[in-house]
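Task: sequence in, structure out. Protein: Flagellar biosynthetic protein FliR.
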Amino acid sequence: MPLTALSLPLNEMVLTAFLVFARVGACLMVMPGVSSPRIPMSVRLFLALACSLMVVPLLQPRLEPTLANVQSWTMLRLIVTESIVGGLIGILAQIYFWALQFMAGVIAMTIGYSGAPSGAIEESEPQAIIASIITLSALFLFFVTDLHQEVFRALLSSYSVIPVDSGLRPDAALVDVTDAFSSAFTGTLRIAAPFIVFAILVNIAIGLVNKLTPTIPVYFISLPFVLAGGLVLTYFLLPELLTFFVSEAGVHLRSF
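Result:
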């Protein structure tokens, strides 16, 4: 009898920890910074376990009624649902960085600096050096300004908005992802707008010079000036653009 009395709370505790790990671990596996391929998988796993065990005492009173008489097939459904919810929260946090990576590639292309690829920060595929600098700077500010704590706050708040036994609403999730993509690409397009305008003006000027002097290889002569102008523009605008990105990302993360 005492053995049975002890084993039941232990089983409920293990199931609670596993359900918390399904949501928290899925979020950490795709959130900015932690999901980088530069971080070993074992480090990411231990970080997810540590964060999950840290919040288990806070969430155990909410999950105990759900796990009182849970069946095996219900437990499997809960694990899948929790993993999807956690992954969705991580994707919503990562969307702004995906948009920034895309626009950073556009910036590198507009200033003529896309021909020398380097190691990417958030992806395994190489990207331009300017794009890597912009992505690394934004990721650094993401942690310095404590925006990663907003992701953890959203995780804890998600248990009130989306309880464990409530199920997942695909229509609401699709609306959230669509709105996040729209706001992310709109915000990052504002970041890349000065460089796009610079590229348009420079190409128009180069085209006019080429029409006036068709025998001179204008492209090769103008390339150093385009690179120099783009680097000067990056030097003066990058701090303000990164501040704008952190502000927009912070507003997005706090709206979860």
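Helices lie at 2-28, 41-63, 72-110, 129-144, 147-161, 170-212, 218-254.
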